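User: I'll paste a sequence; please echo it back and then give the predicted structure.

Assistant: Echoing your sequence first, then the prediction.
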Amino acid sequence: MRDEGDDPYLWLEDLDGADAAGWVRDRNAETVAALARGERFVALRDEIRQVLDAEDRIPYPGWRGDRYYYNFWQDAAHPRGLWRRTSPEQYRRPEPEWDVLLDVDALAAEEGENWVWRGVTVLRAGYRRCLISLSRGGADAVVVREFDVVRRAFVADGFTLPEAKSRVCWIDADHVYVGTDFGPGSLTRSGYPRIVKRWRRGTPLAAAEVVYEGRAEDVGVVAWHDPTPGFERDFVGRGLDFYRQETYLLSEAGERIRIPMPEDAHLDVHREWLVVRLRSPWTVGEVTYPAGALLAARFDAFLTGAREMAVLFQPGARTALTGYVWTRHHLILATLADVRSRLEVLTPGETQWRREPLAGVPQDEHSWIVKTDPDLGDDYLLASAGFLQPATLRLGQVGGAVETLKREPAFFDAEGLAVRQFFAISADGTRVPYFVVGEPDAPAGPALLTGYGGYEVPQLPHYDGVIGRGWLARGGRYVVANIRGGGEYGPQWHRAAMRENRPRGYEDFAAVAADLVARGITAPAQLGIEGGSNGGLLMGVMLTRYPSLLGAVVAHVPVLDMRRYHRLLAGASWMAEYGDPDRAEDWAYLREYSPYHNIRSGAVYPPVLFITSTRDDRVHPGHARKMTARLREHGHDVSYYENVEGGHGAAANNEQRAFISALALEFLWRTLTEPVNVALPRQAGEAAAQGATGPW
């Protein structure tokens, strides 16, 4: 086994070091010169920008429990964005009158900061104060500042936190729970808060009272307050790893009462109800509940030892729960059946729960709940869309009427296009679903295949104007693979590709690629693949393990070095998903697929483009930098682009999103359809030029 001392490209992990920065500038210049020149690229970039900045997009609202709809909006005139609100009556109009609360562009100009909006937490009592999170350049780390909604101004002596990966929750107007960087020893190995405190207005942060402490090896700790009248409660918890946690109820005396349930279960408390979502089987008395089930019990009775659980969802072989949301009196369940959405309403009764379909849900589109407000009542905002159907936003009330509020415009011509679902057979015989979008009767041609396969995150049907204009309108086909590791069939589907089983997900993706060719949809030389983050790891494995199946690869903000991922930024929090490289038995299987460690000089790889961000403080850009350098060292065709800002999304505004999207789509289209080789010149001896001892 080689250790990291054998890595000749460690210097590229130096985020802003002079040598690394110069290397990035050179790679960016090469890629821009090769791909981002000419009328076709400019036209594509401008068309994508039109989609992103379209004034008739749906301004999705976030309810805050008062008489307004709130929305964050970015367009050409406001690239950093506006936080604004309007009344429900105004929202129903084609062009509502918006009341702007904060102009982020104006704030950035006034303060000379590269502010990127990262969200807001509103004080539910009165809805006049909030905590706004702002990021420099789009990183996960944020500055938190208290804002007066009525005065439309930051509170001069209000709650303020310097830049950190902070977690803040209102308790009341004068108190908050805060987890942040309090100094040495206050963060976990993953870089998240290890300590949470109760902070009183007007006192220094250093004087805040410690409420709970976790361990350095935890992912992080958190505290939150439920202000629901009659059900006021406080909770603390610590993440043992990405999937396991301990949760405690805080008594008025400050005693921590453990909520007894499996560590990998997710819990939610709403008024008198406890809802438990299982990731593994749970035996309670004589009953064993399966992984993927959703259970309910009365919270107070559960804490005193009662274990009567109502089964709200029981998974099947082809069904899974994807989420749930409360209204005041009802629970709305979102489920999948072979990756097709279903929504239903459950209503608690004295002895059992009544269930019925949710009104207003179209049959042939993917639907999801945008917002409810359990404080106000039983209204819900429902969105529906498909690969070829722009989104529609509806307002409904459980047991009442449903009205259409907004319709998204069509950003591309879908005439003659169709959506088909197929199933590929993976290496171990597992049926793997995937969707194909495009002309159903066209001969084999360029296809773009995407996937993710991790963290129990499903890949769902969606309308994408950028893909529509930049790929489908050119005659390409778009393919979404639902491989193991995701949540398309619940926790079992995810667990089937965790840790040492991870290659099953890669085999699934390879099976989909081969199935596309077998069905005459595309050919290997015309098949491009694209993925980001964990999906970027998938791209790296496909490049190094299955190169003959592919014609081109694009990886965004990818994880690629499985020897050091846990030592870079938030990587330690992912060890439950991948394994611990410092354990010999884990490194033994990680080494087998780690893209950075499986590059070969004699192999024939398809052209690849890596896209990342200097300000990504979740997945270190060193992954993509080092992978690019090694591929260049071995003479392979690799392109690289690193955006200076943008965080884990690699873009901070629509201009940057349009450029990066156009860069990826132009690279794919040119590589898959044109005989011209867009390879960048090999730079031999790159490692030696930086004092390295030779090839790895």
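The two ends are 12 Å apart (CA to CA). The domain at 4-50+411-689 is CATH 3.40.50.1820 (Rossmann fold).
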